[in-house]
Design a protein that fits this description.
This protein is an all-alpha fold. Helices cover about 70% and strands about 0% of the residues. The chain has one domain (about 5-190). It has helices at about 5-25, 25-35, 50-55, 60-80, 85-100, 115-125, 125-140, 145-160, 165-180, 185-190.
Amino acid sequence: MSLADWSGALIYLFAFAGGYLLGSIPFGLLLARLAGLGDLRQIGSGNIGATNVLRAGSKGLAALTLLLDAAKGTAAVLIAANWGENAAMLAGLGAFLGHLFPVWLGFRGGKGVATYIGVLLGLYWPAAAAFCAVWLIVALATRYSSLAALVASGTAVLMLALTGQSLLAALFLPLTALLYIRHAANIGRLARGEEARIGESRL
């Protein structure tokens, strides 16, 4: 392996690791503690994301959590983009995995929706816009946040494939699969008609 090959490999490694560290910052958990809401993992669904912050009773903190969880994905991509598209994609992958499996929380993180959007925004903003539009339409029609995320993520992958973004589609297909896996319990509750709607508490 030449020096150039080693240099490229190190860049990719640092891009992934840097993305992972950014993605693993548990903003929802930190903000809830700072606001005196307690340990978010012991509230509502136990998730560390914006939806559970909303269930804990703070719309402002939920919105801030959503923005920060998305921003860390976008930031990881944009920083790594200085070393090329492949580095940006690896950083995005790292950020998403960092949110799902943060080392600081015993690899038990969130479901990844906001970070997914943030990574998508950094890599191909039209697909991120489509995600948000579909999420909003489904959420308004059904008031199910989980269902909106599942439909929107599938739409995003389809849009990437149809617009010729084959490399990004190949990246987001497994990310979407992971997002679905993380929502397995939600899917079960949706099937049984037991899923909490937006604004309802699971406390």
